[in-house]
Write a structure and sequence with these properties.
about 290 residues; alpha+beta; Aminopeptidase; 2 domains; about 25% helix; Acyl_CoA_acyltransferase; GNAT family N-acetyltransferase
């Protein structure tokens, strides 16, 4: 007997309530429907054609969702549209139709596609569809209470607004209301660094800081890492998943290289891996 009949439809703004409830019930119940709703209505401006795609049964019920987050990024002075594949869930009896959701999203022309938290069979499927893996070499480092003279660490929005300029200021403005994005300004020797990170869980333990973006002077965060580490520890985060490609350096001190860091992937014609970061995505919008 074949899979039940369904139709594929874009998720409109009017559909986000039903899609959010579906993701809460069937993908991750630890994330509330309201929190999934914030994924489907990101705080930055973007020319979004939809909020992803959904599978609807013949009685109109939602039986599958592939949520998408859109943004317009500045790459080498040009605005480039991005589509982040943010959350994918299909009820088991309708899994035969899953590829229809994927094709609907990837069939949209002109986008750089990112998938920053793929898992299970999605990784191999992405590779068959032309996605490349990003270099996610990661060192798990301990955050220690190490005071550092001459370094100021603050999360005050007013200080961030005053100091950040250009691309960093735009990123802070766009992600100020992003639920999972935490912002840190580091000032040292008349220069500054800017860190965006999220709180992550591993084996259900919410004790990990994951850097998502490093801005400002490239050397300040590295020189001031003891102060940044102590700040993260004060936030209840004893460990950092330090991805070298994101930070631009690998923090020293007690730690271990991960043998199998989680994959992150992208698909693009004219944009290289060096232009892909973890912003404007589910990593900044959803706490899990």
């Amino acid at each position: 007997m074949g899979a039940p009949a369904v139709v594929v439809r874009p998720i409109s703004d009017a559909d986000t309530g039903a899609a959010s409830r579906f993701l809460h019930q069937h993908l991750n119940q630890r994330v509330s429907a309201a929190a999934w709703g914030r994924l489907l209505a990101p705080p930055w401006k973007a020319d979004a054609p939809n909020r992803g795609f959904q599978l609807l049964s013949d009685d109109g019920a939602v039986v599958g969702v592939y949520a998408a987050v859109y943004s317009d990024r500045d790459i080498a002075g040009e605005r480039v549209p991005f589509c982040n594949l943010a959350a994918f869930c299909v009820l088991e009896e309708y899994r035969a139709h899953s590829l229809r959701l994927v094709r609907a999203l990837l069939g949209q022309k002109g986008y750089v596609f990112t998938d920053l938290s793929p898992s299970g069979n999605v990784i191999a499927l992405n590779e068959r569809l032309g996605f490349q893996r990003l270099d996610t070499a990661t060192r798990l480092v301990a955050n220690l209470p190490r005071p550092q003279r001459g370094t100021r660490v603050t999360t005050a929005p007013a200080a961030l607004d005053h100091v950040l300029t250009g691309r960093d200021a735009e990123i802070h403005r766009d992600h100020r209301q992003a639920p999972a994005a935490q912002h840190v300004l580091v000032e040292r020797g008349g220069e500054h660094g800017y860190l965006v990170y999220r709180r992550d869980r591993r084996k259900r333990l919410p004790f990990f800081a994951t850097p998502l973006y490093a801005g400002g002077d490239p050397g300040v965060l590295q020189a001031a890492w003891p102060a940044v580490s102590a700040h993260l520890l004060r936030q209840g985060l004893p460990l950092t998943l330090a991805e070298r490609r994101v930070l631009g350096f690998t923090p020293g001190g007690p730690g271990v290289e991960l043998a199998g860091p989680r994959p992150r992937m992208f698909r693009a014609k004219d944009v290289g891996a060096e232009s892909i970061d973890h912003l404007y995505s589910e990593l900044t919008l959803v706490r899990w």
